[in-house]
Inverse folding.
């Protein structure tokens, strides 16, 4: 294993330890996840006649749209341009950042007002602007909290879900000189007061996109706070970053996907604000931006689309349900996933977007319980894809994932897998090994904390009781040996 891979592993283990040892974080996450899961279940049981059929329909719609993504993208560009929107293409994060930076310089703008956008997190937009001496001001409440904390998001829908209202009250008191409060309404009022002054001053707003509608050349943004709407309408220029997979053919398709999004994300029938942007401000209109720019971001998505298995992860509508139901995520939070995208969907798309060599340890976080695949509203087989990516990591997949090179492969892991395959495909060896484990396995309970391969595993878990007595196993073993 290369030094870089070793550093990555160390960083990964430190992030997990930090999550596991932070009792406040675990309790905040557990409470929040419990509420989100309960709300989702209640809503599905009471408001939907046939949730599963709707899910299957959404999966088929997404797959249909992905199959014709090239045509949809061209149609979107043509119609959006006709509507007066400027469409830009960015192959990767650098191109997207440079493009927006050039636009800011051209317009003499040094600060941008941001609504919530995971794509902007993906390209590291805030850091990029900082490195140029420019500034991004977050308007989403969760993102504002994170900006004050100097932390990346922990969740794709609720970015600061790991903080409770008391912690947020203290943060506002310390960083915004606000009175010490802990009531949600009062905290909201503090954030509003802080942000309101930014809204009137800013010339450029930046947002993400939930759906881009090809045959209308329009974008659809959903949110619950209303701040996003301010950054898309109050500024003279609106820039939206849109992952190419967000483009669908028509409003009918988008409406079906949208019907699953809010229920899956937070257990709400619909979000409070739905913004459909079809053009810049037209003559005679009183508000709206004078210019609208849309950046179509690839960032290795075309590569994902080419693979017969992994393309399915491009169906994701970023609802976060797989995170909310993951028994690992709610113990460690999002920072241990080494990228913008945490949880099961992060384990699947991060290696494909950022490279397996930069994210491969996260694949170990999955227990393959399959809950994520069950709750995904577009039926992405997440657990199956995580297993596939593990094969890539040991050099046995279809080798379509970027950053798959020998430096990502652990010699120990590869030889253990070979040994296991050798044993599991020989009945004689398998029975012998099982007999040995049954007889001497009890020793592992005591020795595990000292065995390098097991010591991390048992640090937070009890070693399981291995069934089978010594006597029974020895006689079986003899039977195997002499058969
Ligand atoms: S993978 Fe499925 S459950 Fe997870 S965020 Fe995407 S759409 Fe939601």
């Amino acid at each position: 294993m290369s030094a870089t891979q070793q550093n990555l592993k160390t960083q990964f283990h430190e992030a997990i330890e930090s999550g596991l040892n932070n009792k406040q974080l675990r309790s905040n996450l557990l409470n929040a996840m419990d509420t989100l899961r309960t709300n989702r279940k209640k809503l599905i049981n009471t408001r939907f006649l046939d949730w599963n059929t709707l899910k299957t329909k959404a999966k088929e719609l997404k797959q249909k749209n992905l199959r014709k993504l090239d045509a949809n993208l061209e149609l979107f560009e043509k119609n959006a341009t006709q509507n007066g929107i400027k469409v830009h293409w960015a192959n990767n994060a650098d191109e997207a950042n440079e493009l927006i930076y050039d636009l800011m310089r051209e317009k003499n703008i040094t600060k941008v007002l941001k609504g919530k956008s995971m794509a902007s997190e993906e390209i590291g937009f805030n850091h990029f602007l900082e490195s140029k001496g420019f500034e991004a001001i977050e308007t989403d409440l969760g993102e504002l909290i994170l900006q004050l904390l100097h932390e990346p998001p922990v969740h794709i829908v609720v970015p600061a879900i790991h903080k409770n209202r008391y912690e947020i009250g203290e943060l506002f008191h310390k960083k915004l000189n606000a009175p010490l409060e802990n009531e949600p309404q009062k905290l909201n009022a503090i954030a509003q007061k802080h942000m309101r002054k930014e809204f009137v001053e800013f010339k450029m707003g930046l947002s993400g996109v939930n759906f881009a509608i090809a045959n209308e050349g329009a974008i659809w943004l959903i949110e619950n706070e209303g701040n996003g709407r301010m950054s898309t309408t109050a500024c003279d220029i609106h820039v939206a970053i849109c992952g190419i997979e967000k483009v669908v053919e028509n409003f009918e398709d988008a409406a079906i996907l949208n019907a699953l999004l809010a229920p899956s994300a937070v257990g709400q029938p619909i979000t409070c604000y739905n913004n459909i942007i079809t053009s810049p401000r037209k003559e005679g209109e009183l508000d709206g931006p004078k210019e609208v720019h849309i950046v179509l971001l690839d960032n290795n998505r075309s590569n994902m689309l080419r693979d017969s298995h992994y393309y399915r992860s491009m169906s994701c509508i970023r609802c976060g349900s797989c995170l909310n139901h993951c028994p690992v995520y709610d113990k460690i939070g999002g920072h241990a996933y080494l990228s913008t995208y945490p949880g099961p969907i992060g384990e699947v798309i991060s290696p494909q977007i950022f490279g397996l060599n930069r994210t491969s340890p996260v694949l170990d976080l999955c227990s393959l319980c399959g809950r994520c695949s069950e709750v995904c509203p577009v039926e992405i087989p997440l657990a199956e894809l995580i297993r596939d990516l593990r094969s890539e990591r040991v050099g046995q997949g279809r080798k379509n994932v970027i950053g798959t090179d020998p430096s990502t492969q652990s010699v120990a892991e590869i030889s253990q897998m070979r040994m296991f395959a050798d044993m599991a495909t020989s009945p004689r060896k398998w029975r012998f090994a099982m007999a040995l484990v049954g007889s001497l396995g009890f020793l592992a309970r005591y020795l595990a904390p000292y065995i390098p391969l097991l010591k991390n595993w048992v640090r937070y878990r009890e070693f399981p009781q291995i069934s089978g007595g010594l006597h029974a196993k020895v006689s079986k073993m003899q039977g195997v040996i002499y058969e």
In short: The chain has a mean pLDDT of 91. Residues 435 and 473 are 5 Å apart (CA to CA). The longest strand covers residues 237-243. Residues 23-47 form the longest helix (25 residues).
